[in-house]
Amino acid sequence: MGFLLSKSMDQNLKKQQEFMLHNARIQMERQILMQNEMRERQVAMQIAWSREFIKYFGTFFSLAAFGLTAGAIQRKKPALFAPVIPLSFIMVYQLDMAYGTLIHRMRDEAESIMACEGDRLSMPRGMPTFESIERARRAKSHLPPLSEK
């Protein structure tokens, strides 16, 4: 009788462990999907910001380039044209960010860094752990430390 009860309890325990593992897996998949969606939204906002910035900066750049070029020709002072050069670099960068391949090149470079220079990515003092976070939280709230087991 005791053996049958023990066997039944073991089966129930195994089923419960499998169920908990399944739920943990689903929860992790949801977290990964949520984090990826948030990342995608942030990148989309960055690209949208660049496109909006282009509208304003492009107008400013056009007016400045036209005015400085006209002034340089009219006054016969080529030095007046000089500010157009650095402004054009900013304009090209923003255009590349908004409509070009800058994002793709940045991603490729990031993948290269992760593959070949992974040691540069380590966090100072290592990866945070539950214990280190809890210790810092308790220190800020002046609670007694966790008991060690």
Q: What would you say this structure looks like, in words?
A:
The chain is built from four helices and no strands. It is mainly α and 149 residues long. The protein starts with a helix and ends in an 8-residue tail after the last helix. It has a domain at 2-101.
Gross geometry: elongated
Q: Name the helicity range.
A: over 70%
From the alpha-carbon coordinates, what is the Rg to the nearest angstrom?
Answer: 30 Å
Structural class: mainly alpha
Fraction in beta strands: under 5%
Instruction: Tell how many strands the DSSP assignment holds.
Output: 0
Head-to-tail CA distance between termini? 37 Å
Q: What average pLDDT do the residues reach?
A: 90
Low-confidence stretches: none
User: How many helix segments?
Assistant: 4
Question: Biggest sheet, open or closed, and with what strands and sense?
Answer: none
The H-and-E topology, N to C, reads as HHHH
Sum up the structure in keywords.
Plasminogen receptor, C-terminal lysine transmembrane protein, transmembrane helix, mainly alpha, transmembrane, 149 residues, 79% helix, membrane, Plg-R(KT)
Topology:
Blueprint: H1 2-75, H2 84-99, H3 102-116, H4 130-141
Helix pairs in contact: 1-2
Protein name: Plasminogen receptor, C-terminal lysine transmembrane protein
InterPro entries: Plg-R(KT)
Pfam families: DUF2368
Question: How would you briefly describe this protein structure?
Answer:
It contains 4 helices and no strands. By secondary structure, it is mainly alpha-helical.
